[in-house]
Amino acid sequence: MSSVVTPKMLRPGAETAARPPAQRRRRKPLATRAYKVFRVVALIVIVLSFLAPLAWMFLASLKTNVDIYDASKTLIFEPTTANYETVLGRNNYLSFVFNSFWVAFASTALSLIIGVPAAYSMSRFAMRRSALVVLMARIIPGVSLLVPWYYVFSNLSMVGGYTVLILSHMFVALPLIVYILMSYYDSMPLELEEAARVDGLTHIGAFLKVTLPLSMAGIATASILAFIFSWNNFMFALVLSGADTKTLPVAIFNFVAYASIDWGGLMAASVVVTIPIMVIALFTQKYIVSGLTAGATKG
Q: What is the number of domains present in the chain?
């Protein structure tokens, strides 16, 4: 004869012993919500910490130098476009924009022509010593090379031209491209190339027809980052450029004088420099992320 257990037949301590798991289940959603709120607040603080300088730069570019120093006109002021007229009109900044674009484009293109096969060779043939040399080139600070570079290029009568700027920017772009693509090629399976070679392709043919098309995301990522680094480079252009080959970062430096700083013009010129990079990053961010993450895993 089966017996039915009723709530009255339970031990006195059984009901109280069953409460803690229920309480833990009630506390868990509270802890999860608190963590989500904390994460959102932390992300907002981080985003604002990056956006605040950009917002201040843009607002300052629309102010006079007197309004910039006036704390009461931080947000409420009478905007003016005089700074942009000075930058784009009187200082011939469009030529500086062309110089920056040409140097960045040429240095990136030449670095890709050299860096793509170099990265593939180092990845497939385990040329770790060559990779170490590229790493050393990446680690060595560029400022330590300015004096010997200036001495060599001045003796060759190259200082002040586009060629010396392109070569110096390749010193930054080439190691970056090689190391990004090395990790990308390391993650690609060898079976694809082996299958292509079984079909009759040579090693170079397998690279050109199989590996290279599959690595376009990594190449796009490396080229975008190299272009951005070259566009923002100030040190090489300051020493090696001439009056007709100044890039935008050097042209901005003209607003800094010995006795004073034209903050309005400086901020307007900074906006002119920043906008192209922000547009490039905005439209290519998914390619940058996919290219960097694709080489993060093996196989």
A: 2
